[in-house]
């Protein structure tokens, strides 16, 4: 058994070793985990061990077999999904929280930063008079927002849906480009996935306001309760921003909850060149953003903001538990004195969402903003938007590239074209698989107006214009090879 001093020294040494291993990983010189000759699976795939190998053995296996065979997501050239590797600041903060604040309860520094960082996010994104709560990702963040919307809609007809359930059909209006977590939230909340009304989009991927008005009118005639309108501040597919002002005014005129899904695109408001597209955000009743996307947090950090956080409490509050409420000073006690950090739970975030146990996420967001400030965040958003604009410009000018939709934010949808190839969708699908296997510049694909597109989405803090330029060069090189091989007579 090590004494306290020895244990502290051992932790420092092990963290130094793991840190060195992560530094090596971040050079991005290692092959993909599934490259031939990678033997990590054989070393790790063992039966339940009867005896442990000790902490030194665990560290050794992490260094030799686990870390070098990690994900491709943190690579600077990875632009497939709207997620990224956490920055150094995020990693340091999450590690600190894992040791020093494994729960967000109590009047301690980490819980203080939970509230402070939410306020910083609200200030950063112009969410005036809104209060927030963290959760694990956009799926839960949207669930919380729609839970508040359900509470709002049913309370207006004299029913508490969280306590008594729903007793009538409702409708949630969302564009055909809305993230599928909206449908899942509707299912979880008991209103049914079919309650989500898909509203057609224009050729720029934005919800059609005329179709929204028509759908609401149809439902009102049918006696269906309009529950929420969901607008996108940056769609996952193409980065399109819905006409927030027009949609918000419709919601206000009909008394319908107005939710803005900004999981990916809300930080784009920091780029003054596109900031006017966010007019109408001030009309929203709820807004979400995922710091683990464009802000550089590790996966597992999202935020839901609402104008009235008591709606969240009524929608998600737990019934009292003696072991919890009895452990802290109770309201109504004679002059309760708070002399210890566990005399009070602090802000009851557990009653504003679906998590009782939850990590201290606010310290991660605090660290991200504290490191580079608003100015650094602005610079990052501008850089990534510039990368998408660069690809769009090249695609407009190069005879073997086609721009399929003008970029709004940091997503650009384009493809390789060749008069020698009949099926361009197949060509670009093969091109995409080649890019992935080369393990350097890795976009995803999507469909834009029925055509398959290469879809880089630039959100990584380590990504620079060099990655956008390299991606274009790779697409032209691989596309030419594939087109030549597909030419008649070959």
Would you kindly provide a written description of the structure presented here, covering whatever features stand out?
It is a single chain. The protein has 15 helices and twelve strands. The chain is an alpha/beta fold and 490 residues long. The protein has two domains: 91-320 and 338-368, Aspartate Aminotransferase, domain 2, CATH 3.40.640; 373-486, Aspartate Aminotransferase, domain 1 (Alpha-Beta Complex), CATH 3.90.1150. It has a seven-stranded mixed sheet with strand order 2-8-7-6-5-3-4, with helices on both faces. A three-stranded mixed sheet has the order 1-11-12, with helices on one face. Helix 6 crosses helix 8.
Indicate the proportion of strand residues.
5-15%
Could you state the CATH homologous superfamily of the largest domain? Type I PLP-dependent aspartate aminotransferase-like (Major domain)
Order of helices and strands: HHHEHHEHHEHEHEHEEEHHHEEHEEH
Supply the CATH class of the largest domain. Alpha Beta
- The span between the termini is 71 Å
**Would you tell me the overall average pLDDT?**
93
With helices defined by DSSP (H or I, 4 residues minimum), what is the helix count? 15
| Biggest sheet layout | 7 strands, mixed
């Amino acid at each position: 058994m090590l004494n306290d001093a020895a244990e502290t020294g051992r932790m420092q040494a092990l963290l130094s070793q793991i840190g060195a291993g992560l530094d090596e990983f971040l050079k991005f010189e290692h092959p993909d985990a599934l490259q031939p000759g990678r033997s990590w699976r054989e070393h790790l795939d063992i039966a339940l061990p009867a005896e442990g190998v000790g902490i030194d053995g665990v560290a050794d296996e992490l260094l030799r077999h686990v870390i070098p065979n990690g994900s491709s997501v943190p690579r600077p050239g990875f632009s497939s999904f709207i997620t990224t590797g956490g920055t150094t600041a995020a990693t340091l903060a999450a590690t600190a929280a894992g040791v020093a604040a494994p729960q967000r309860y109590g009047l301690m520094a980490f819980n203080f930063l939970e509230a402070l960082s939410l306020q910083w996010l609200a200030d950063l994104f112009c969410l005036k008079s809104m209060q927030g709560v963290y959760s694990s990702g956009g799926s839960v963040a949207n669930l919380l927002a729609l839970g508040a919307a359900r509470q709002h809609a049913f309370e207006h007809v004299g029913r508490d849906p969280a306590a008594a359930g729903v007793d009538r059909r409702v409708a949630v209006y969302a564009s055909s480009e809305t993230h599928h977590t909206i449908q899942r939230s509707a299912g979880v909340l008991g209103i049914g996935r079919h309650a989500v009304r898909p509203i057609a989009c224009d050729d720029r991927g934005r919800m059609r306001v005329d179709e929204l008005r028509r759908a609401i009118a149809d439902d009102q005639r049918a006696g269906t309760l309009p529950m929420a309108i969901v607008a996108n501040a940056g769609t996952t597919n193409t980065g399109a921003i819905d006409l927030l002002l027009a949609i918000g005014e419709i919601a206000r005129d009909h008394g319908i909850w107005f939710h803005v899904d900004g999981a990916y695109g809300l930080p784009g408001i920091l780029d003054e060149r596109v900031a006017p597209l966010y007019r109408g955000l001030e009309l929203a009743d709820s807004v979400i953003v995922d710091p683990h996307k464009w802000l550089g947090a590790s996966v597992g950090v999202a935020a839901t903001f609402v104008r009235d956080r008591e709606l969240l409490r009524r929608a998600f509050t737990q019934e009292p538990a003696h072991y919890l409420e009895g452990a802290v000073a109770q309201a109504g006690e004679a002059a309760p004195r708070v002399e210890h950090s566990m005399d009070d739970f602090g802000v009851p975030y557990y009653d504003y969402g679906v998590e009782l146990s939850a990590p201290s996420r606010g310290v991660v967001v605090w660290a991200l903003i504290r490191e580079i400030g608003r100015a650094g965040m602005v610079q990052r958003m501008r850089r990534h938007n510039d990368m998408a604009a660069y690809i769009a410009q090249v695609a407009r000018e190069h005879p073997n590239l086609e721009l399929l939709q003008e970029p709004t934010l940091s997503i650009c949808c384009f493809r390789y074209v060749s008069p020698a190839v009949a099926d361009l969708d197949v060509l670009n699908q093969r091109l995409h698989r080649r890019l992935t296997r080369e393990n350097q510049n890795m976009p995803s694909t999507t469909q834009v107006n029925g055509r398959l597109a290469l879809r880089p989405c630039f959100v990584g803090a380590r990504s620079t214009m060099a990655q956008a330029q390299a991606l274009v060069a790779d697409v032209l090189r691989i596309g030419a090879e594939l087109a030549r091989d597909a030419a008649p007579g070959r």
